[in-house]
Amino acid sequence: MVLGAYTSAIGAGLSCPDWPTCYGTWVPFLHSGVVADAPYTAVQIFAEWVHRGLAFALGFLILGTVIAAWRWQRDRRLVVGAATLAVALLPLQVYLGRLTVTELLQPVVVTGHLSVALLILLALSTATVGSWFGERTDAAVGGE
Q1: Structural element, H or E, at residue 93
Q2: How many other β-carbons are positioned within 10 Å of the β-carbon of residue 104?
Q3: Residue 139's CB: how many other CB atoms inside 10 A?
Q4: Residue 24 and residue 37: Cα distance in Å, rounded?
Q5: What is the pLDDT of residues 108-117, one digit of tens each?
Q6: What average pLDDT does the segment 16-45 reach?
Q7: DSSP 26
Q8: Cα-flanking dihedrals φ and ψ of residue 25, to 5°?
Q9: Which one is predicted more confidently, 24 or 140?
Q10: What predicted TM-score, i.e. pTM, was given to this entire model?
Q11: What distance in Å separates the CA atoms of residue 3 and residue 27, rounded to the nearest whole number?
Q12: Model confidence pLDDT, tens digit, residues 114-143
């Protein structure tokens, strides 16, 4: 979320004008003409490109979190539920990220994108705290 805010603050939200690629390529910096001919600075393009890449990687980490929750925290409903909510929100977050670019930073879309990011952060925070302090259900307590 911090990188997304930084990208927005430096006016780089549309520095990769297409989605999911950036100027029709996955790595615009491998094509010298792309960055040189762009109406944005290399820093702006880099910020947006890294934002997308980091979001992609974090999506897989969130998926790993829900798998771990179902596998090792199954007896903690709060943890499993919160992790499942986080992964369930991912497709919406990706879609809103796409719309942020294709709809040219419409305020309602940008606000929705940030709001869903906050919900995912809240769900992951709940799962984390629940795994540290949450009580196990009766079924698990009797079996341990």
Answers
A1: helix 77-102
A2: 11
A3: 9
A4: 14
A5: 999 999 999 9
A6: 95
A7: S
A8: -135, 155
A9: 24
A10: 0.90
A11: 18
A12: 999 999 999 999 999 999 987 766 555 444
Q: What is the DSSP letter of 41?
A: -
Query: 50 near 3, Cβ under 8 Å?
Result: yes
Name which of 24, 28, 127, 45 is nearest 83 in CA terms.
127
User: What is the spatial distance between Cα 33 and Cα 26, in angstroms, rounded to a whole number?
Assistant: 14
Q: What are the pLDDT digits (tens) for 66-88? A: 999 999 999 999 999 999 999 99
What is the distance of C-alpha 119 from the center of its chain? 11
- Percentage of the chain beyond pLDDT 90 is 91
C-alpha distances (whole Å) from 24 to each of 27, 57, 133 are 9, 20, 47
Torsion 9-12-18-24 (CA) sign: negative
Give the largest Cα separation in the chain, rounded.
66
pLDDT at residue 33, rounded to an integer: 93
Q: Which residues of 22-43 are buried (b: 16+ CB within 10 A; e: fewer)?
A: bbeeeebeeeeebbeebebeee
Q: How far is CA 46 from the centre of its chain?
A: 17
- Name residue, tokens 């004008």: 17
